[in-house]
Structure formats: C-alpha cells, structure tokens
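Posting for a labmate who doesn't have an account.
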Amino acid sequence: MKKALLVIILLLAGLAIFWFLQKKPVQQVEIKAQKTIVFASDATWPPMEMVSADKEIVGFCPDLVKAIAKAAGFTAVIKNTAWDGIFAGLSGGKYDAIASSVSITDKRKTTMDFSDPYFEVKQGVVTRKGESIKNTADLKGKKIGAQIGTTGYFSAKKIEGALPESYDEVGLAIENLNNGRIDAVICDDAVAAGYALQNPNYSKTLTLAFLIVPDEPEYLGIATQKGNQETLDLVNKGLKAVRASGEYDILFKKWFPTNAK
C-alpha cells in the first residue's frame, strides 16, 4: 500500500513539474554575433600598411583598425587590395571601408564618407644622396615618381616644369630612383622617411630631401561607403575610445619611434 501511494505521489509530482515547465518555459539567452566590417588596404605603403614576411597585413593602420574594432565591439577583416580600383570597389560594395592612408579631400567626400582624421601628413621628397635638390624649384625638368591617384602624384603634377611619372606602387618608384632612372619620389612623409631613413636597402643611398608643406593641413581618414552611417559611427566610436585610452599614442610610438614626442 505504501509503495503504491509513493508511486502515485511521484507521478503527481512529475505531472506538476511538467505542467510548470509548460507554463514557464526555460528562457534561452540569445547570443548576438558581432558585426563584421571588411576593410580594404593597399598594403604597399610602409610603415602605414604593408605585408610582413609571414604574409600578414601589418603596420600602423592595421593595428589601429584592430584597436578600433575591439573598442567599438565589432569584428574587423582587412583585405589586401590594389590601390588602382580601391575606390570603385568601395562604391561597388566589395568591402565596407578603406583603411589605407586615404587623404580626406573635398572631391573624395562627394563619393564616400570619412571618419574623423587619424593622422596628419605632409608630402616628402626622396632623392639620391648627393643630389642638389632642396626645394620644388630644383625639381624643374626632373623626373618625379609617385603612386598613381595619391596626393604625392597630385603634388608632382603641380610642380612647374617637372616630369611626373605614375606607378602602381610607391616601392617601384623608390627602386627606380635608387637605380637612377628617375630623380625623385614624392609620397607621404612617414612613408618617405621609412624608405629613405630606415629601410636597410635604401638608407645608404637615398635621403629625405625636404617636405612639401601644403597650403592647408592634410589628414588621413578611414573611408566608408556613402551613406553607411552605421559603419561610420562604429569606426568613429572606436577611434575616439582608442585616443582617450592612450592606445593611439602607444601604437604611434611603436611604428614611428623617432617621431614620438
């Protein structure tokens, strides 16, 4: 009798638990995946962005993008993309943003949006050591190499009497300068200093002759698709946080130790 009563009690308890669970379903915690933002980078612009010996995209800007992503809570994917066509790829939706030393200009603002500035640049003029080139006037009649579609190339075209030559990569222009095929190369000052002063292949033969000071400051920004406010806001949020935390200064000292204050 006691055994039968115990069985009945257990059955009733089981039914009660079943009824309770039906009325009160177990709540599941929804895990929301982080947003992924794909960045294009022409990794031929050391030390801003380049490909390491291990075939990884490294440099100041890739490190900054990773820090921005962590601070803003999104996943960053960086794809090595040739400069020729990089803006068309952004417009066509092949990626969400460009993090590749893109100068913020009024003309570019008509077809893309920009983050807050993350770097100020001037144009550096690299020559062979021993050349008597000290200013833009000395470049008259000289062959000047620069990467096509960059502010360095635009600067070369503005020099009266100069003979600008465009290259797909600034490294090819530097190599031609080193071999005596051209007379100078114009590119962002950080890149010019990297090749002329720090690169062991060129530091003994090339020099940073002078800087071209622009009429107005030139800043780099991360370009996003026109109208993609969500991506732009996330990038700006992360950039602001990285600056406020001091991580920006740490990255700057890592990649530009001779320029660090």
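Reply:
Got it, the structure tokens are right above this. The chain has two domains: 36-120+219-255, 123-212.
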